[in-house]
Amino acid sequence: MTVMTVDDVVAELRDGMTVGIGGWGSRRKPMALVRAVCRAGLRDLTVVSYGGPDVGLLVAAGCVRRVVTGFVSLDSIPLEPHFRQARQRGTIELTEYDEGMLYWGLLAAANRLPFLPIRAGLGSDVPRVNPDLRTVLSPYPDGSELIAMPAVTLDAALVHLNRADRRGNARYLGPDPYFDDLFCLAARRRYVSCERLVSTAELVDGGPPQGLLLNRMMVDGVVETPHGAHFTSCVPDYDRDEGFQREYATADWDRFRATYLDGDEEHYQKAVAAR
Amino acid sequence: MTRADVCVVACAEAWRGDGALLASPMGLIPRLGAQLAQLTFAPSLVLSDGEATLTYGDEVEGWLPYRAVFGVVAAGTRHVMMGASQIDRFGNQNISCVGDWSRPTRQLLGVRGAPGNTVNHTTSYWVPRHEPRVFVDHVDMVCGVGHDRGAVEIRVVVTNLAVLDFATPDRSMRLRSVHPGVSVAEVQAATGFPLTVPVEVPVTRSPTASESALIRDRLDPDGRREKEIR
């Protein structure tokens, strides 16, 4: 367990890896880590995500070969512009699952199971666009046919929580844990960025024990990145930056990248503050 | 009374008699409908704020993070009202993409939870603009499954023009009612497949005085509902 920088984390990632990203839509995304991946120019990643601007940024930066998801959305802006454009140009591959199937795939990986049965997907076109997907028959008297959702195993997981200690224990303070613990449990290497690195005593005193979502068995590296989820929401520390999100969604990509992404994280935060 | 008010009440009616289950409205008018139902004839209905908080009227009453929603889905104690970019006569729905899935002409949201919702619990749809490119012969990507593909129950499709249901022998789509001022022919012209039309088509009920007051004074005082159907 080590305290790291965003660049230390990216240095442990490789082209072609399968990377899971926590959060949901445009909520509590590890954006500082995502920006660092974009800067480093990693290629051919398979990105597993309840997709938001994390997917959009990585796609626009040319880091992505395949997206594994049930949706990609900016919440207040329903359609993610870069993901949308890449799909329409045919420049990325897609594994499209029902949201519950993706949950089950992470759960299977977290439990070291090859698959978990689920009803979601039956009768729909999800099996048509995922020809490797199989069904199983219940061995019990009901004999029902179910989708055998394969484990979604990750090379690395990137998540962002409100608070963490130096050992890798971490707490969320907002209303929803999303699936961040499962992303970590499904991954070989697990990296958590946080708004504030605090002492273990402060971490424990900072809320109810149920909010301690990650323990150090589930984490390999921790990074302090204040405003590291910007421009997604990270309540109660901050809400989504809707104005900046609109700018992201409408700006010319080359101009956006030159303004905000070509420098390091400190440069990004200064450029955001200077708007 | 406006067309949007009629639509809010028509959406509310979808949840009538549902008891203590999770109502999940997607879109403003379905949300107003679910809130109206909870405040009036369906007081047992459970509503969330769209994120992890359960609300009863103006009061917070519980916690339901996304992972727990999937438990409710699997248990079947939920009635969702989703949008539909395309829908066919058996209620198969598409919100993923238009055109060939491998390289769509229009990428939309993705399948979201529609496949799981429709095989686990009751589903209704809200279409703010009833037109032939939404009501199609075949959807490009089956997200929510229809009655010919194993749906539990597609209850109603509420649009800006009418309410449709599936009360036919083969559970295909039928015109249940037209909104005040809308003709049957108008609905048929806006539907890209042959619709079952009863001999007598009733008019969708109008809001009562107290429903109107709730919508206007409490649920949507800024009139945002008018913009959703334009």
From TrEMBL, chain A:
Source organism of the structure: Paractinoplanes toevensis
GO molecular function: CoA-transferase activity
Protein's UniProt keywords contain Transmembrane: no
Keywords linked to the UniProt accession: Transferase
Protein name, UniProt field: CoA-transferase
Signal sequence segment: none
Superkingdom assignment: Bacteria
Automatic annotation (TrEMBL), chain B:
InterPro entries: CoA_trans_fam_I, NagB/RpiA_transferase-like
Protein's name in the database: CoA-transferase
Annotated Basic and acidic residues bias: 214-230
Single annotated GO MF: CoA-transferase activity
Signal peptide start and end residues: none
Lineage: Bacteria, Bacillati, Actinomycetota, Actinomycetes, Micromonosporales
Stored Gene3D superfamilies: Glutaconate Coenzyme A-transferase
Assigned protein family: Belongs to the 3-oxoacid CoA-transferase subunit B family.
Pfam families in UniProt: CoA_trans (PF01144)
Region span, Disordered: 206-230
